[in-house]
Design a protein that fits this description.
Helix content: 25-40%
Structural class: alpha/beta
Mean pLDDT: 97
Bound molecules: inosine 5'-triphosphate
Shape: globular
Order of helices and strands: EHEHEEHEEEHH
Strand content: 25-35%
Number of helices: 5
Number of strands: 7
CATH class: Alpha Beta
Number of domains: 1
Largest sheet: 7 strands, mixed
Distance between the termini: 16 Å
Length: about 190
């Protein structure tokens, strides 16, 4: 089975990649930098998802010389003028996601400006060839956090056309609809050519 390095330190992302690839019937072995004993992380100083996704992929590709896939993602919230975006992992400092999600929904209490979107850009490098794949999921911010599945901002995100949060709908929903699943589906099409 082909080995692919997944250039992330986020265990939730690794699990989602595995779940989505299984769902898409793509047979690859995903290896993380930690599996290879690497705890170093690149400095994500890009200004876009594309730039940060490339920085992560290139950093680990140069280190391990394996086909490498990276994901840069984030949530854009209309109420915050599109923030946090590429800064989603660092938004509101060291607050836990539980507290962040409560903080955001409290700040937005009563507001009708609830639009939001999840973004994902995957970079894939193999034989020095770089390709990008993008996925966007549109929706809104819930009135309060709900649900236990997924990670990050899933408990406060409701996809258009649904009435429950990503965290309530769970992994099957994310495997099918998420920004990451949309990007990975495009990658899989190229990969299987
Ligand atoms: P790596 O850089 O090591 O991949 P990271 O978590 O720092 O891990 P990002 O810089 O891409 O990754 O930040 C993505 C953040 O966006 C993530 O930590 C969550 O806060 C949020 N996010 C992205 N995808 C999400 C999803 O599917 N569900 C909920 N939150 C998500």
């Amino acid at each position: 089975m082909k080995k692919i390095l997944i250039a992330t330190g986020n265990a939730h992302k690794i699990q989602e990649f595995k779940d989505i690839l299984k769902y898409l019937n793509v047979e690859v072995e995903l290896i993380s930098p930690k599996d290879l004993g690497s705890y170093e992380e690149p400095i994500e100083n890009g200004k876009t998802y594309e730039e940060n996704s490339y920085i992560k992929a290139k950093f680990f590709y140069d280190k391990f010389h394996l086909p490498t896939i990276a994901d840069d993602s984030g949530v854009e919230i209309d109420f915050y003028d599109g923030k946090p975006g590429i800064y989603s992992a660092r938004f509101l400092g060291d607050m836990s996601y539980r507290d962040r999600n409560i903080y955001i929904t409290n700040e937005m209490k009563g507001s009708e400006n609830r639009g939001a979107s999840f973004h994902c850009v995957i970079t894939y490098i193999e034989n020095d060839i770089v390709n990008y794949y993008k996925g966007i999921l549109y929706g809104k911010i819930a009135n309060e956090p709900k649900g236990d599945e997924g990670f990050g901002y899933d408990p406060i995100f409701i996809c258009n056309g649904f009435n429950s949060t990503n965290a309530e709908l769970g992994q099957d929903f994310k495997n099918h609809h998420s920004h990451r699943a949309l990007a990975l589906r495009k990658w899989a099409k190229d990969f299987e050519k």
